[in-house]
Write a structure and sequence with these properties.
heterodimer; A: 114 residues; mainly beta; six-stranded mixed sheet; five-stranded antiparallel sheet; 11 strands; globular; B: 116 residues; four-stranded antiparallel sheet
Chain lengths: 114, 116
């Protein structure tokens, strides 16, 4: 059962514009959410996380928003740069698993065009 | 480089053979995780350790898979009698965590397994 869903397999955005990536989840026990970026032939790289006690977390060009009632989170990248072209994964974990197990979405391929 | 290290990077083997992968976590991290990733999918959880104790195994993990972390440092993942369906990227991650807090997991670059 896919408890974390990224419904957009791809996103194309112009350099300098905002990239918005979306993620939905079904398990109300999830309380810790993360975004990872992955380049080909490399492992996922941690970008930013958010705990369910917050609705926003910011780190430089990256901001994650959490809407618990909608079970939805999003990642905003402003401004988008060519080096941001990668696959982005949303992940979630629950205290019932001692936050040990991350459940991932299928990823969104972002292409930043000049 | 003090990141998560995985060896080998690539493994090609014939169906029915046994394979073993190694993961060296970030040195101060007490948790170590194994995931599997296939094309077009996100990583799928296999198992994790806190120190040397294996705390959870995915129910999707068949009996042909076994993982160890004997001294609470590096870990090995063994697949016995490999099958075509085992072809995937095997990712290792580590974190500093306990049952009372959460911290991000940091991933290695994976071992790509190809079964002929």
């Amino acid at each position: 059962d896919q408890q974390v869903k990224q419904n957009s397999p791809s996103l194309s955005v112009q350099e300098g514009r905002i990239s918005i990536l979306n993620c939905d989840y079904t398990n109300s026990m999830f309380d810790y959410f993360l975004w990872y970026k992955k380049y080909p032939a490399e492992g996922p790289t941690f970008l930013i996380s958010i705990s369910s006690i917050k609705d926003k977390n910011e780190d430089g060009r990256f901001t994650v928003f959490l809407n618990k009632s909608a079970k939805h989170l999003s990642l905003h990248i402003v401004p988008s740069q060519p080096g941001d072209s990668a696959v982005y994964f949303c992940a979630a974990s629950a205290p019932s698993d001692s936050w040990g197990k991350l459940q991932f979405g299928a990823g969104t391929q972002v292409v930043v065009t000049p | 480089d003090t990141g998560v290290s995985q060896n080998p990077r690539h493994k090609i083997t014939k169906r029915g053979q046994n394979v073993t992968f190694r993961c060296d976590p970030i040195s101060e991290h007490n948790r170590l995780y194994w995931y599997r990733q296939t094309l077009g999918q996100g990583p799928e959880f296999l198992t994790y350790f806190q120190n040397e104790a294996q705390l959870e195994k995915s129910r999707l993990l068949s009996d042909r898979f076994s993982a160890e972390r004997p001294k609470g440092s590096f870990s090995t993942l063994e697949i016995q009698r490999t099958e075509q369906g085992d072809s995937a990227m095997y990712l290792c991650a580590s974190s500093l965590a306990s049952q009372y807090s959460n911290q991000p997991q940091h991933f290695g670059d994976g071992t790509r397994l190809s079964i002929l």
